[in-house]
Amino acid sequence: MKHRRGIGLAPPDHHAVEIDTVTLTTLPQWYVIYARCRACQRQTLIERRDVARRGSRDLSLAELAKRLKCRRCGNRSGNLLFLEMLPRD
Questions:
Q1: Does the reported pTM lie above 0.85?
Q2: Of 13, 21, 60, 82, which residue is the least packed, with the fewest Cβ within 10 Å?
């Protein structure tokens, strides 16, 4: 959908998540979390149960994104966090 002033808007079926307030416990189970390194573009799945088991259940997704470290190149700055919604039948 296009806004009349040229601003691209999300489609009506798009689901947004507030990463500053959502934690691993409040994020619905049908979301999968991926991390991507800005330096080498490596992308990997984050096991949310492993992160929660380490004592970080109440960590916001924004704070989790700041703590990411690439296993390939060791980059710690500017790494990205992506959420993907699994199909619900």
A1: no
A2: 13
